[in-house]
């Protein structure tokens, strides 16, 4: 009986830890829409959304961090780089030349995206 009681407390504790983790780190979805305008890239859930954006020459693109963690938008060729963007911060860049501009988050290099300027 004592073993069952200890096991029950252990399982409740484990579920509490897992629940805290999920609520604290995984509850980023659904808070706000992925994008609000055609020239905006939202940083959410450790991803750039959309991952690929096609715009016309002369377009100003804005990155908005809606994640709980800080991020950057840094060009692979270093032609642009945002400061560290905290939750709610924005960074804008006007693209005056055609081409494909690949970028990543300097804090989380697996996060990548591209802006295609035509």
Reconstruct the topology from this structure.
Elements: H1 2-25, E1 40-43, E2 48-49, E3 52-55, E4 59-65, E5 74-75, E6 90-95, E7 99-104, E8 112-117
Defining key terms:
20% helix; four-stranded mixed sheet; Immunoglobulin-like; alpha/beta; 118 residues; 2 domains; 8 strands
Describe this structure in words.
By secondary structure, this protein is α/β, with parallel strands linked by helices. It folds into two domains: 1-30; 40-117, Cupredoxins -  blue copper proteins (Immunoglobulin-like, Sandwich). The protein is built from one helix and eight strands; from the N terminus they run αββββββββ. The protein has a four-stranded mixed beta sheet with strand order 2-1-4-6, with no helix packed on it. Strand 7 and strand 8 (112-117) form a beta hairpin. The longest helix has 24 residues, at 2-25. Residues 7-33 have low confidence and may be disordered.
- The overall pLDDT average reads 81
How would you spell out the order of helices and strands? HEEEEEEEE
Main sheet overview: 4 strands, mixed
CATH homologous superfamily placement of the largest domain: Cupredoxins -  blue copper proteins
State the shape.
Answer: globular
Just give the CATH class of the largest domain: Mainly Beta
Number of helical regions: 1
Strand arrangement, major sheet: 2-1-4-6
Brief sketch in words of this structure:
Helix content is 20%, strand content 31%.
